[in-house]
Amino acid sequence: MTSIIRLKSPGGIEQLEHVTVELPRPGPDEIRIRQTAIGINFLDIYYRTGMYPPTADGVLGAEAVGVVMATGENVSSVQVGDRIGYAGAPVGAYASDRNLPAWRAVKLPDGLTDATVASALLKGITAYMLLTRVYPVSTGTVVLVHSAAGGLGQLLTRWARHLGARVIGTVGSDLKAAMAREAGAQHVIVGRDADFAGEVAALTDGRGVDVAYDGVGGTTLAKTFGCVRPFGIVASFGQAAGPIPPIDVNDLGPRRSIMLGRPSVMAYMNHMEDYHRGAAAVLAALSKGVLQVSGTAYSLADAARAQGDLEAGRTSGSLYLVP
Question: What domains appear along the chain, each with residue ranges and CATH number?
């Protein structure tokens, strides 16, 4: 029998239940994985609360690490016993075992632990997409990273610094400010109610940043528009603080002349070449020490508590589940 965390209906963490089910054999082009570490992301909360359409079986989770236990017909890319990681659709990672399209499997180097990959793969591919596809960051680029002490925020900060960028981060507390600085942020703006647009203007002599990465959403996004230079980009890729109010296109220009992007890493990873290119870049960056992660473990049965801690902002870095 397979242990899963299933969503009874959209809502709070009390809607998550721990049950056991019978898992069928993998079909053609599928593999069966015994999972050892399962990444937790805000994406999972969006599914739980109904912000995103529910999955067919109610199982959440978009990344994990495990060992291949069986393969279906036509599978030649991996073998039984291979240690692999994956991210992307179909969601359903909150499980001790699961079936998965074989093309999602990424073989892992021996030097990286299961916890490291489960804490970094999806967030790392998101960072890679934001730093290369959305805006090509390079030496001298000035970036703003909201929630710079979070799991994705730290990866974005470290990778942007490696590429030669100047990083301004925002955080909610002095403790998180220390974490953002440890990740490489040269300037950290502290406080949930801080005038970060005014502070960014002071730090950039009124110019603004080249690109702002906003996974906070809520009312923060409109304030972020004031942080970006003319013809710069605001990348809005999440809404941890809640739904984003309607946006008036006049807030973007012509006076400001800025661009707004709404990139989806799930859409990015649906393209096989982009997915494998991003995954390879993340694993290489982890292996070389360019990226570092700190993960907090919860048992699979405690998935509701883990989501509650993430949603309430009681955590820093990445979270993962252990079946």
Answer: 2-120+279-322 (3.90.180.10), 139-261 (3.40.50.720)
